[in-house]
Design brief:
Number of domains of chain B: 2
Strand order of the largest sheet of chain B: 6-7-8-3-9-10-12-11
Largest sheet of chain A: none
Number of domains of chain A: 1
CATH architecture of the largest domain in chain B: 3-Layer(aba) Sandwich
Number of helices of chain B: 12
Radius of gyration of chain A: 25 Å
CATH class of chain A: Mainly Alpha
Largest sheet of chain B: 8 strands, mixed
Distance between the termini of chain B: 42 Å
Shape of chain B: globular
Number of strands of chain B: 12
Strand content of chain B: 15-25%
Number of strands of chain A: 0
Number of helices of chain A: 11
Oligomer: heterodimer
Helix content of chain A: 55-70%
Largest interface: A-B, 41 and 52 residues
Structural class of chain B: alpha/beta
CATH topology of chain A: MetI-like fold
Chain lengths: 311, 338
């Protein structure tokens, strides 16, 4: 090759007027996600559930039934059985004559709150610990990785029961327990990803510029972790919601008077032969919610597919 | 400006589940001495795995050397303030895809060195100046690396390396990942920048024609050692080391007539493992001129006049005809190699 002849050949810039900020990887991912019908329907379903949860007091006002209010005369038949769906009790009442719909909507608040907050906590701690372990390597990694192994091998239900017995059940404990047992999974994935990125040339480039380790971790590694972390977090939310329901079902969750899907399901076990709706409706709600979050998580994963990373 | 004295870099090979035992060493760079003069371009050529990239990373301080000294302006770089050293010595990487963070905008990538070194002033303006300097449209600072071609990305890498006004730039195969037509543009950019900014380059490549074009002096590396170092024209016209001869004979030539006339020296076998390098001269198992002395004694880099350094007991004389044949002596005198 003659080294000078190709000089005249100019490199062409992408067809776009100058000054227009490029479509970033996030923008492109969002555009892909928008074409995913299952994910978009799931997103709409989640939005509706969130809206319903936020509007729970409105439903309580319309029906005139508070979440704790018992209506022994209207809600329970003279034989002592819960009434079915009607104009006053849209989805029926439970054994104590409480409005199932209103309780379910208030329960949605608890479920979503626990699901999102514990996932957020698990994500923050998981990302920090996983990133430090993966980036620093050596004995730091060995120590943290063993700790994660220990956490992952804990019988979580047993620990939750013991903790609830010692400290008393409650919302903060519930969130802590769920976050504690989900952060390890997050940390593991983040650690693996960080190890893979640590060897990339742009990390070496950052080092050659004189960037410190902490800066490199947050400025160069973290943006690349957002894709896998988002996927895992969106899949952790339904897990946490189910976990909350499980613990509440076992009476280890929130204050038993506070409605929660797990608690409602537990109470329904006494009546499911005569009032199947009592079991069916909250279970269906739980199913729809977790399904929607899972499908959205899958859609997010497809949209953030690493193959789309490079063109 | 930069002096490298008997630098060695070994990578330990560790085995064992809990207690890691060192079972061997990769002799990536094994006793390299050379000097880089202010304002020149020192080319370093060699096959892949010969240690040239490791040497580059030692010079830029990305690797700590196992032994030897690297001095910048007469001061050992191990004792220099790392931040001050980084301002003076920068690196351009081989892979324009891997060396830019795909999740960050180009403006922020180029601004990185300014932010890390807390340089005051209008960062945006400086970034756009740098982009213009390397031939990019300054309006594109808001884009992501994926929106640029390979050549443009390499320009981004160059802009980032120049942000701190370094004096020495180590280019680690800056064009080998690019299309041939783009290579010329990037090389011309690098030479223009050298004239404009008075830069000194250490230019690493495996493509002899690229190195010939940019370099004032060229060092040839083989298995972690410099086997020949000379002024570019000198090296290409009168190569003295048999390995350099073989390397040059393998290089592609633009002239088809010349190419047809030329005889290629085909070397026997593969490059030996740097974990267990051969005794004596590293090149002896493949050298057409090898004799007993080459097996026993490691040749030193000796000046044969005009600063033409060669590490060979029996250098090739001008006009000498090198064959592809392998001397029989090899078989008897070498210890069995695994």
């Amino acid at each position: 090759m003659s080294l000078t002849e190709a000089q005249a050949e100019a490199e062409h810039l992408p067809e776009q007027p100058p000054g227009v900020p490029g479509k970033g990887p996030w923008r492109l991912a969002w555009e892909r996600l928008r074409r995913d019908r299952a994910a978009m329907i799931s997103l709409a379903v989640i939005a509706v559930i969130v809206l319903l949860a936020l509007l729970a007091p409105v439903f309580a006002a319309i029906t005139g039934h508070g979440p704790q209010d018992q209506f022994p005369s209207e809600g329970v038949t003279p034989e002592g059985l819960p009434v079915g769906p009607s104009a006053t009790f849209w989805l029926g009442a439970d054994g104590l004559g409480r409005d199932l719909l209103v309780r379910m909507l208030y329960g949605a608040r608890i479920s979503l709150f626990v699901g999102i907050v514990s996932t957020l906590l698990a994500t923050v701690f998981g990302v920090i610990i996983g990133m430090v372990a993966g980036f620093y390597g050596g004995w730091v990694d060995t120590l943290l990785a063993r700790v994660l192994d220990v956490v992952l091998s804990f019988p979580y239900l047993l620990v939750a029961i013991v903790l609830a017995a010692v400290y008393g059940a409650g919302l903060p404990l519930l969130i802590f327990v769920i976050a504690f047992f989900s952060f390890a999974a997050m940390a593991r994935i983040v650690r693996g990803q960080t190890i893979a990125y640590r060897e990339r040339e742009f990390i070496e480039a950052a080092r050659s510029l004189g960037a410190g380790k902490v800066r490199t971790m947050f400025v160069d590694v973290l943006p690349n972790l957002i894709a896998p972390v988002t996927v895992l977090a969106s899949l952790l939310i339904p897990t946490s919601i189910v976990f909350e329901a499980t613990l509440s079902y076992l009476g280890l969750g929130v204050d038993p008077r506070t409605p929660s899907w797990g608690a409602i399901l537990y109470e329904a076990t006494d009546y499911y032969r005569v009032a199947p709706g009592l079991l069916l409706f909250p279970a269906l709600m739980l199913l729809i919610t977790t399904l929607a979050f899972n499908l959205l998580g899958d859609g997010v994963r497809d949209a953030l597919d690493p193959r789309a990373d490079r063109r | 400006m930069l002096s490298v004295t008997d630098v060695r870099k070994y990578f330990p090979i560790k085995e064992g589940l809990f207690i890691k035992k060192e079972v061997g060493r990769v002799h990536a760079v094994d006793g390299v001495s050379l000097e880089v003069r202010a304002g020149e371009t020192l080319g370093i050529v060699g096959e892949s795995g010969c240690g040239k990239s490791t040497l580059a990373r030692c010079i830029t301080g990305l690797h700590h050397v196992t032994a030897g000294r690297i001095e910048f302006d007469g001061k050992d770089i191990a004792t220099l303030d790392p931040k001050a050293f980084r301002r003076d010595v920068q690196m351009i990487f081989q892979d324009p895809y891997g060396s830019l963070n795909p999740r960050r905008r180009v403006g922020s990538i180029i601004a990185d060195p300014l932010k890390i070194h807390r340089i005051e002033g209008d960062t945006r303006k400086r970034v756009q100046e740098l982009m213009a300097l390397v031939g990019l449209n300054p309006e594109h600072y808001n884009r992501f690396p994926a929106e640029f071609s390979g050549g443009q990305r390499q320009r981004i890498g160059i802009a980032r390396a120049l942000a701190l006004n370094p004096r020495l730039v180590v280019c680690d195969e800056p064009v080998s990942a690019l299309d041939v037509s783009i290579q010329a543009q990037v090389i011309n950019l690098l030479t223009d920048l050298q004239d404009q900014l008075g830069l000194t380059y250490v230019f690493i490549a495996h493509d002899l024609s690229v190195v010939r074009y940019v370099s004032d002096r060229v060092a040839v590396m083989y298995l972690g050692q410099v086997v020949e170092l000379a002024v570019g024209e000198d090296l290409y016209k009168t190569p003295r080391h048999p390995y350099t001869n073989a390397l040059l004979s393998a290089a592609s030539v633009a002239d088809p007539d010349l190419s047809a006339k030329r005889e290629r020296i085909v070397l026997m076998g593969d490059v030996p493992s740097p974990i267990n390098p051969p005794t004596g001269c590293r090149f002896h198992p493949r050298c057409p001129k090898a004799r007993e002395r080459c097996v026993a004694e490691m040749p030193l880099l000796i000046d044969s006049g005009n600063g033409h350094l060669t590490a060979c007991h029996f250098p090739v004389q001008p006009g000498e005809h090198l064959t592809s044949e392998h001397p029989q002596i090899q078989q008897q005198s070498t210890e069995p190699q695994l």
